[in-house]
């Protein structure tokens, strides 16, 4: 009987430790394991634009691009209480002297990123480094990990820029044109799922402009792919067959296998340019959201297009422009708006003091508005 009680107590203790977060976590966003997406042999498929590609194309692309993909390891301070603190059965085995009170339990996380400048700027997801007290970056072929500094973070876009001092001349990746990517194009994901360095998976671009909500984050303009994306892939590149980054791997569906999501490069580019050049972000002064489904249908807008104005701040550039709640912004300086995230990136990637032109739908009528962006 004593042996049985000891086994039960040990199991309860293990469960308590797991609830405390002692087991390593690899991504800040929920994810289920996905085992899929390798696709057919390259010799039987076609690449972007329908042109055939040789059997070694994927390997060549990976060979060129993989050195610029990095592993990011973080430590996030946290405080929690044992969930069995008030459990009578647990106390029966361990007594009231067991330390049930709050305790600091640092959480260890792992993600991916990719180098965007030879002097060590690295792009990743905000949720990979959010709240971290320590960020360590491992570069392929280097004997040691580098302490990284978080330079910029953008919660709403789930983007972050970190910097390492690794002596310069680092390999880099180039952002491509995600707007020109077509559904059905072949894509390659590189990252560190579950700590497995530089794992390569292949799939197709399954859809564009997907709105997705995960935890407290709302995304409005994600690329969807069946290339396998798992915890630890977050922040890594989604590449086209030219070896260009068309997306940042960000999330995986919690309801089905073979469904991963990436932030499109068109959202990243304007923000990254300002960050690297240390330029302030433009500010419009509105709260934005997806166009309601019924409204999009009545306006004849495709899914994911346009940004719905919920509120306009007093004294803001938006108020000066004459924007009103209920307006749907469809063009920003002549460029199509693919959801609120896309518009936010366009605004933040434009310098304060710039005159911008907006085309909005107001009660079904197109209205042209202009204003000067403020400073965020």
Which features would summarize this protein structure in a list?
376 residues; alpha+beta; Pdz3 Domain; seven-stranded antiparallel sheet; six-stranded antiparallel β-barrel; disordered N terminus
Task: Give a description of the structure.
This protein has 376 residues and is of the alpha+beta class. It has a domain at 280-375: Pdz3 Domain (Roll), CATH 2.30.42. Helix content is 19%, strand content 34%. The chain contains 8 helices and 23 strands. It has helices at 2-19, 57-65, 88-94, 126-129, 265-276, 293-299, 317-321, 340-348; strands spanning 69-76, 79-80, 103-104, 107-115, 121-124, 134-139, 146-147, 149-154, 159-163, 186-191, 199-214, 217-225, 237-239, 245-252, 260-264, 282-283, 286-289, 307-312, 328-332, 335-336, 355-362, 365-372, 374-375. Strand 11 (199-214) and strand 12 (217-225) form a beta hairpin. Helix 5 packs parallel to helix 8 (340-348). The radius of gyration is 23 Å and the shape is globular. The termini are far apart. Mean pLDDT is 81; it is low at 1-51 and 89-94.
């Amino acid at each position: 009987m004593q042996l049985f009680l000891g086994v039960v107590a040990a199991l309860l203790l293990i469960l308590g430790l797991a609830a405390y977060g002692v087991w390593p976590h690899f991504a800040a966003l929920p994810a289920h394991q996905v085992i899929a997406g390798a696709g057919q042999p390259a010799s039987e498929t076609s690449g972007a634009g329908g042109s055939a590609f040789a059997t070694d194309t994927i390997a060549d692309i990976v060979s060129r691009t993989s050195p610029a993909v990095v592993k990011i390891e973080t430590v996030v301070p946290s405080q929690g209480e044992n969930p069995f603190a008030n459990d009578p059965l647990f106390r029966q085995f361990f007594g009231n002297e067991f330390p049930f009170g709050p305790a600091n339990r640092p959480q260890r996380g792992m993600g991916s990123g990719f180098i965007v400048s030879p002097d060590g700027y690295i792009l990743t997801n905000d949720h990979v480094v959010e709240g971290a007290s320590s960020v360590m970056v491992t570069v392929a072929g280097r004997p040691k990990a580098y302490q990284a500094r978080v330079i910029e973070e953008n919660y709403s876009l789930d983007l972050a820029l970190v910097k390492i001092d690794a002596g310069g001349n680092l390999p880099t990746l180039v952002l491509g044109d995600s707007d020109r990517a077509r559904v059905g194009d072949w894509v390659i994901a590189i990252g560190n799922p579950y700590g497995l360095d530089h794992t390569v998976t292949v799939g197709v671009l399954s859809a564009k402009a997907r709105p997705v909500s995960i935890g407290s984050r709302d995304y409005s303009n994600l690329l969807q792919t069946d290339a396998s994306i798992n915890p630890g892939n977050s922040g890594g590149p989604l590449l086209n067959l030219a070896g260009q980054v068309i997306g940042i791997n960000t999330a995986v569906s919690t309801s089905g296998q073979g469904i991963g999501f990436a932030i499109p490069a068109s959202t990243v580019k304007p923000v990254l340019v300002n960050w690297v050049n240390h330029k302030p972000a433009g500010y419009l002064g509105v709260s934005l959201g997806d166009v309601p489904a019924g409204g999009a249908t009545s306006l004849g807008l495709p899914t994911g297009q346009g940004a719905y104005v919920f509120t306009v701040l007093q004294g803001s550039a938006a108020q000066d422009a004459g924007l009103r709640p209920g307006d749907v912004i469809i063009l920003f300086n002549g460029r199509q708006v693919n959801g609120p995230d896309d518009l936010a990136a366009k605004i933040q990637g434009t310098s304060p003091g710039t005159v911008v032109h907006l085309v909005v739908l107001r009660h079904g009528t197109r209205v042209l508005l202009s204003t000067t962006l403020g400073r965020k």
